[in-house]
Amino acid sequence: MIRTAATAFVLSFGLAAACSPRGTPAPAPDASPAANPNETILGGATSSVRLLPVTADIAGKLEGELRCAFTDDAEDTTLFLGAANVGDQFRANGVLNNRGDGVVLVAADKGGFGALRDGGSFSSQTLTATLETGEETDGGKSEAETFPARLSVKATDGTEVAVEGTWTCGP
Q: How, if at all, do strands 77-84 and 127-133 pair?
């Protein structure tokens, strides 16, 4: 009985392979991220800066005990995350999603979470992100602090994208 079942399986597999069309090329994979109506895209399709929402995988690249997030007000999506430890000797780091690639950036200045809270400049080998923050808008209603902010991302080729949003920091 086992031999008959195994023989039937092998024959059906061979028949399926023989009936499959040969020489038909597989469709080429789409090089761009999948279109999603809820997805923020800042920067053109051919631009070297094309910001997409930060994914959980990208966020996992952060190091630091306290976090801040830049949210695009128009789309309510997170475009930049920062993290740092408490203490002036620490340098913050941040992540963003450029063209589907997670980019880790390092703060230009030390200052730990206090410096991260104020925004600042972050860079990688190919991008510089600058966060300019305004006055706190939360008014102490929660442990998190909320600021109006502007995120500018510039590539080494001079391409730049800027967006208005909210910078929220807290434990």
A: unpaired
